Amino acid sequence: MTTTPTTHQNYLNGRWQDAKSGRTFERENPADGEIIGRFPDSGPDDVAVAAKAAADAFERWRFTPAPKRAEILFRAAEMLLARKEELARDVTVEMGKVLAEARGDVQEAIDMTYYVAGEGRRQAGQTIPSELPNKLCMTFRQPHGVIAAITPWNFPSAIPCWKLMPALITGNTAVFKPSPYSPLSAANLVRILEEAGLPPGVVNLVFGGDEAGAALVEDPRVAMVSFTGSLEVGREIAAYCGGHGKRVHLELGGKNAIIVLDDADLDLAIDGAVWSAFGTSGQRCTAASRMIVQDRVRDEFTDRLVTRASALRLGNGLDAGTDVGPVVNTESLDKITRYMDIGRDEGASIAAGGSRASGNGLDRGYFFQPTVFTDVQPGMRIAQEEIFGPVTDVITCSDLDHGVAIANDVPYGLVASIFTRDISKAMRAMERISTGIVYINAGTIGAEVQLPFGGTRGTGNGHREAGQAALDSYSEWKSVYIDYSGRLQKAQIDP
Ligand code: NAD
């Protein structure tokens, strides 16, 4: 299918415009290499215009009553819902995930937008008893100011909504810098926000890559950076923000595990493993790249996983028969390929997949065979580092505690799951697994927007997206004391 490339512009202070330099970049469909669109390759000048617009709009927006802000978000949610199918197709075309998953990505954006819009009439603070008479103590939320929302390409519809919607409902304005590998969905979302009635300057969209991202982080008008992406870039951003007193919210990588005990429902565990390892070609931050399997069921589990992985059909995500789409770009393909050598050199074996997929037109895109490593030791690089492709390891554990210890012993802490029929073991695992998200008898993917989302250790810095926790990320508490005693009361100093 031939796509006609579309041309796009930045959205700055309510106006669609080219990069000041006139430079553009092209995005291709990772399934077939066809150019799908041209986008401004923004530089610091464009970022400065965006940050100024957001800063100028802040006072007006923060004092717009929250229920009124919410009305705009409700309208945006309705539009996302009405356009779900076309939005999902654009997700597939620009980053490759199969259409059913792309619909899920858009649905998550819809869910988050409705959920957060409901906060327009909540965002409750507290009233707390005072230690003094005739004094009222209470708290309420206040926005940070200008938020820099810097996003990856793997959930191009959902992740921007996870950031922008809670930022907006709590009264912040924003500059949104999407990944250059998923610019189309970003343009679609901002167009919807514009049509929903968002005033100029409240959300500004700047396309571009690292240069635009770095300029945004460093812009003095940006009060908080909300970043989802790789550990390496996240750490750079955190170092800058730490040195400059900026708030920073990080959602980084994962090396997520599924523990399968010998009493597990193996049919269910295999379904969970296949979906979690190879869904979105393993390019989810929550993908399961380690299967930690108790010794007595390891061989059966491995054989079945290998059979299922080898049977997955690769292809264009728009084709109904496709199970697994391409990976996002050639760099990703190269990185995954390098890990095949790393794994072999470490002594692991490849029981399924192991190389770039070819034939049936797959050579035109970036396809990698669903891959299963066996003979994996927990300390190997393939079991410690995020590969971010359709690759998973099988690691043997002797019992529950051993499995949990292996699961926890990685630099990341996003999500883990356990399959067992023993409620006591499930409870013990739930308490001892040290990730931000735990699933019992389910795979590692399938988060719901009303619960906090985020990870421990290298996955984050203590903030959470989604749920009520998102409000805490995008606002700060203000404590207010109202003294109506008519005299100067001094708290701890008064008798
Ligand atoms: P990436 O770090 O390469 O890029 C993320 C964003 O940062 C992009 O918009 C990019 O242009 C921008 N950027 C790059 N260098 C920058 C710099 N120096 N300053 C400012 N911005 C810069 O990540 P990616 O390849 O887009 O995404 C994949 C990664 O995201 C994986 O590690 C994955 O686990 C992670 N991820 C995490 C979560 C989560 O919630 N924990 C969710 C999705 C993806």
Helix-residue proportion: 25-40%
- CA-atom Rg in angstroms: 24 Å
Summed up, the helix count is: 14
* Average pLDDT taken over every residue: 97
Name given to the CATH homologous superfamily of the largest domain: Aldehyde Dehydrogenase, Chain A, domain 1
* Share of residues in strands: 15-25%
Number of domains: 2
Globally, the shape reads: globular
Poorly predicted spans: none
CATH topology of the largest domain: Aldehyde Dehydrogenase, Chain A, domain 1
The distinct ligands, each listed once, are: nicotinamide-adenine-dinucleotide
Strand order of the largest sheet: 15-16-17-14-13-19-20
Features:
495 residues; alpha/beta; Aldehyde Dehydrogenase, Chain A, domain 1; Aldehyde Dehydrogenase, Chain A, domain 2; 2 domains; 7-stranded mixed beta sheet; 5-stranded parallel beta sheet; 14 helices; 22 strands; 38% helix; binds nicotinamide-adenine-dinucleotide
Describe the structure.
With 495 residues, the protein is an alpha/beta fold. It folds into 2 domains: 6-252 and 460-479, 3-Layer(aba) Sandwich (Aldehyde Dehydrogenase, Chain A, domain 1); 256-440, Aldehyde Dehydrogenase, Chain A, domain 2. Helices cover 38% and strands 21% of the residues. It is built from 14 helices and 22 strands. The chain has helices spanning 44-62, 66-82, 84-95, 99-118, 158-169, 183-195, 210-218, 231-244, 266-278, 295-311, 330-346, 400-408, 423-432, 469-473; strands spanning 6-7, 10-12, 15-17, 24-28, 35-40, 127-128, 135-143, 146-150, 173-177, 203-205, 222-228, 247-251, 256-260, 288-294, 349-352, 371-374, 391-397, 412-413, 415-419, 437-440, 456-457, 475-483. The protein has a 7-stranded mixed beta sheet with strand order 15-16-17-14-13-19-20, sandwiched between helices. Strands 10-9-8-11-12 form a 5-stranded parallel beta sheet, with helices on both faces. The longest helix has 20 residues, at 99-118. The model has no long low-confidence stretch (mean pLDDT 97). The chain binds nicotinamide-adenine-dinucleotide (NAD). Nicotinamide-adenine-dinucleotide (NAD) binds at residues 150-155, 177, 179-180, 209-210, 213-214, 217, 228-230, 233, 236-237, 251-254, 285, 386, 388, 414, 455, 459.
